[in-house]
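dumping these here so i dont lose them again. two proteins, back to back, each one seq then C-alpha cells. dont judge the mess
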Amino acid sequence: MFVRAHDPVMHSEYLPPGTDGPVLVACDGASASSEALFNAGRLAIRALGGPLQVLGVCEPTPGVAAGMDVLLVPAELDEARRALMVEDVRRAISISAAGDPAWDVDVQLGSPARLLATEAFRRHASVIVMGIGRHNPLDRLFGTETTLATLRESRVPVLAVCPSFPTTPTHAVVGLDFSAASVQSARLAARLLAPNGRLTLVHVRPRFEHPSADWQAWDADYGRTLPPLFDQVRTQLDPPEGVTVDTVTVRGDPASSLLSFAQQAQCDLIAVGTQRHSFLERLMVGSVATRVLRTARCGVLAVPSAA
C-alpha cells in the first residue's frame, strides 16, 4: 500500500482480458456455497455484461504405487466422476433461487487452479467467481487455498465470495497503492456496487517513526503528495451514477490496517490489486492480497497487474 513521495499515479489503461466476455463461475455442485456463487455471478453479469458460464474441475485420480510400479486408474473411472460432477452442478443450479438452467455448464478434468486460470484467459472472461470458506478449518484450508492458488495463476480478476455475500454490495473498501492494478480494482468494485453504494479508497502509509529531521521532512512531503494522487484516481474511476467515493489514509502494516478498517466499516467487499513481476512474487501473489483473502470476513476482489 506504500507509494514513494512524488511517484505519479499510474494511469490505468489496463483492462482485464475480455471485459465484455463471459463471467466464469467455478462450481463443484456443493449446495453450501452455490447460492452465493450464483448470486455473485448474476451481480457480475449485470455490472460487466456478457453471459454466465459455469465451470467445474474434477481432479484426476492419482495412480497407486505398487512396489516399483504405479497402477494407473482407468480413464473410465475419472470420466464417471466428471459426469457425476456435471449432474451435481446442474442440480445445484436447478434448486438455487439464483440459478438458471439455461446457463452453460462444463466440467473438465485437471488441476483446479491452473485449469480455471487457463480457461478464463482462453474464453476472455471478465472475472472468475469463486467461493471462500469461513465456517470451519477444512473450509478455510481447502476452499480458500484453492482460490488463492487460482489467483496465483490467473491473469483475470478473481471475485471470491463467502456464503453470506450479499446479492448487491453497498460498501466496498479498496486497498489503494496507486498502481494500475489497484486503480483497476477500484473501477471494478465501483461497478459491482448498488446504485446508492459507497466506495472507500484506503491508502496505508508507512509508520517508520524516527526523530530525525530528515524523516520528518520526508514524511511531511509524503503526506502532501497524497491529495493530488487521490484526485487523479477519482478522475479515472468513472463510478456509476449514485455511487459515492471517499478517501482515507491510515498508518501501519498494509494488510493488517486494511483488514482492520474494512472490519470496522462493516463493508461487503474488499478490492485489491496484485503485483507479480518475478517468479517468487508470482508464487506469493503479494502478501496483502494473500492475507486479505485468507482473513477477510467479506467478499474479496483481486485484480492482477497487466505484467
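---- next one ----
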Amino acid sequence: MEITQADESFNEFKFGKFKVEDESRIKLDAEFSGELFYDLIPALQIEITKAEVLLKECNLQAEVISREESEIIKEVSKLSDMAKKSSEVSELESVLSEVSTIHVDFFRKFMHFKDISEELFSSITKLEVISRSADLFMEKTSELKEFFERLRYFESKFEQTLNGIRDLFTLISLRLDTLRNRENLDLQRRTASLQAAAAIIEFVAIFYYTLKTWDYFTPLENVPTSISFLLLLVFTTSVVAFTEVFGEWIRERRISKRFVVMAAVIVAVTFLMYCIPNIF
C-alpha cells in the first residue's frame, strides 16, 4: 500500500481515491482513518491472500481428482460387468470388497476437496462484506467469486461419480444377499431332509429294541398282534417326540406343557405294556 497524490487514473471510493496497480499493491489518496488503515485494509489483504491460496489448492485438488476419476470410472465399469456375470457368492464378495475400497478412497478425497471449497466460500463471503464496507477491491471479489463458481462444476461432477460408486455397492450388496438367502434356503432344505432321515432311523431303532426288550421281560405270545403293534407304535412315536422336547428343556432349563404331556404319555404306555401281557 502506498499513499500518494491521485491522478486521472484513480477511482473514487468511500474514503477518497485509490488505484490498484497489481494484485498486491494499492495506491491511496485519502485522509487518515483508523477504520480504513487499521481495520478494513488489513482485513481485505488477509482475506484476499487466504482466498487466493485456497483457490490454488482447490484447483490443484480438482486436477488430481479428475485424473484419478477417469481411472476409477473405468475400474468401476469393469467391476460392474463382473458383478453382472457372476453368480458365485465368493466372487461377488471379492468384487464388493474392491468397490468398497474405491468408494472409501474417493469419498476421502472428495470430502477433502469439499472442505477446502467450503473454506474458500467462507473467505470470499467475508471478503465481499469487507470490500463493500470499504468500497475497495469489488472487482477482485467478483473475480474470485467467478473462479469459485467454476469449481462448483468439479464438486458436482465428483459427487455424481461418488453416487455412482455407492449405487454399485448397494446393487452388489442386494445381489449378494439374494444369493446368500438362496444358499441358506437350499441348506435348510438339505438339513430338513437329513433331520427327516434321522427321525426315521431313530424311530426304527427304538421300535426294534423296544420290541426285543418288551418280549424279553413279558412274553407276547398270547397278546394280539394288533394291540402289541399299536402299543409299540404309540410308545416309539412318543419317545421320538420326547427327544425334541427334552432337547428344548436342556437349552432353556424350563419345563413346558409339552414336556409334561409327552412324559405322561410315555409313562402311561409303559404301564400298559407291562399290564396287558398279564391280562392275556
